[in-house]
Amino acid sequence: MKRLQGIAASNGIAIGPAFLYRVELPDLPVASDVDAAAELERFEQSVSAVRAHLDAIEERKRGQLHADNFEILEVQKELLADEEYGGQIRNRIEHKGLNAEAAVHEVTEIVVAEFSALEDEYFRQRAADVADLGSRLLRNLMGIADVDLSGLSEPVVLMAHDLSPSDTIGLEADKVVAMCTEVGSATSHTAIVARSMGIPALVGVGTIDVSDGATVILDGNEGLCIADPDESTLQEYRSRKEHDEERREKLLRMADKPARTPDGVHVHCVANVGGLESARSAAKRGADGIGLLRSEFLFLERSTLPDEDEQYAAYTGIADCLPGTHVVVRTLDVGGDKPVPAIRIPKEENPFLGHRAIRLTLEQDSLFFPQIRALLRSAADRDIQIMIPFVSTLSELREAREKILQIHESMKAEEIPVCDTPKIGIMVEIPSAAIMADVFAREADFFSIGTNDLCQYTMAADRTNAKVADRADFLDPAVLRLIKRSIDAADTAGIPVAMCGEMAGSVIATPLLLGMGLKEFSMSASQLPEVKDAIRQLNSSECRPLVEACLDCDTASQVRGILQDFLESRLRRS
Ligand code: PEP
Ligand code: MG
To answer: What is the tally of helices (H) and strands (E) in the chain?
Structure first.
């Protein structure tokens, strides 16, 4: 029995076989006395097998939301058919006495190096696609199953060093019952995806020393993973899991009821979504709207940009999952550590502090214009609002607003149906915006507080680094003061303020946020039933005194203690 302790990133308990998602390959087989004809034959067979595999993935993805997000597969298929690439490999087998593995490896390395050395960022980024194709061929030659996480057939606990947005595209909750990663924090990509899928997750566990297929218990409530459990531990967790699921089902049955405190404060509980699937799941879990649509999902795993019509179809399709509610769409939030193949972003020394999000899109009309046009069209007959991410100075908001209004005017002149007045808000996720919240509130139509980044930048703690995750605590009084300041500034200016960082979906923070007067909580769909249930039990007048008590604390752990005691005395046990 082995225990891995990590950061509890998504609630729930799962039990299943470990599926180790390792991208690294074992050492290549060394061969002497190579039979060139046989090796050529093996190479040709691996080309056919990989092509069939790529076709199969493409076919499977075609029916899904990310219908156009398979261009990387197309690039790989083109390379597979490329005379130069295949020719060099065959040449090494025939004339240099290499086996198929060595030849594929050698040629792939050369091509990757050539692409990586190119000036053009777009082609430089193609190097990763070439490397990926090479490893698909090598896997096939070495008899290692090619990993396509969207094609898993049995339910598994997915264990990996880390998971990128492209790894997680197409994952299904009935196939991946839980996730566990060696690195990451509660606001890293894996955590956000797991919460949106409603499956338990554990991140930042350090080295995963578990065998493929081993039985694994993953407790996302306690931040614990147990591999090869003995019978009594297994029994204990089976009954905990059953109890946990019963509780969730009970909450889910009440999810549609409004989140009104016993003393009559109505709170909007809306969802953070990253595509059509999560919007559907939000609708089933009682979302009163969408408080954050992360539009990046449209730009992943493809080498071209989505055009205006495609974006229009995506935004309206998502909004129509929750008719009659409001939908806040965040403009593209990429750059630095969030690469998108179709966008040329030079490598940066410090990507978290770099040329990203609104800083990037304001400079590239080919990104900003089609997105804004699609949003203004979508808003013609729906309540779709535009949210600007990563705003650090007022001039960014002004420039974005001016551009949006110009686009709006020109569309009206073209007689394209658009909304009467665009609603343009900002993410308050950089300390400078929170500090200057009173000034921003005069020019923004709404605020949404992004605590994931607000914590990262206030506490100088990289949100993807498990080693500093304890510093990036949203209950730190420094962060709380900025949140309070932002809510107060919005209230004074009379503009709506929401919170869309992960804090909004954490019950520990619910009484404090109610006490601060927050009226819109936007969270992963899986958190909605639980947060709504807590709100229905908490009197806002009793929550108010918590604000001063927490803001006066010296440390996050003191704040946590106050809130835990309060919740224990107010929430019924289940
Ligand atoms: C945030 O920063 O709090 C946020 C909601 O945005 P993201 O997690 O996508 O950076
Ligand atoms: Mg953010």
So the answer is: 21, 17
Q: Which ligand is nearest to the CA of 450?
A: 1
pTM here is: 0.82
Catalytic residue among 189, 268, 326, 408: 189
CATH code of domain 36-141:
1.10.274.10
Active-site choice (225, 321, 500, 543):
500
> Is residue 500 lining ligand 1, measured as CB closer than 6 Å?
yes
Instruction: Just give the CATH number of 2-23+148-232.
Output: 3.50.30.10
CA distance 213 to 156: 9
Extents of the domains making up the chain:
2-23+148-232, 36-141, 254-570
**105 has catalytic annotation:** no
Q: For residues 158 and 178, is the Cβ–Cβ distance under 8 A?
A: yes
Q: Is 189 annotated as catalytic? A: yes
Q: Which atom of ligand 1 is nearest to the CA of 453?
A: 2
Say yes or no: do domains 36-141 and 254-570 share a fold. Answer: no
pLDDT one-digit tens code per residue, 548-572: 999 999 999 999 999 999 999 999 8
Report residue 572 as tokens: 């019924």
Q: Which CATH architecture has domain 254-570?
A: Alpha-Beta Barrel (3.20)
- Per-range mean pLDDT, top range of 30-34, 53-57, 175-179: 175-179
Pocket test for ligand 1, best of 189, 196, 500 (most atoms within 8 A of CB): 500
Residue 277 · residue 314 · CB < 8 Å: no
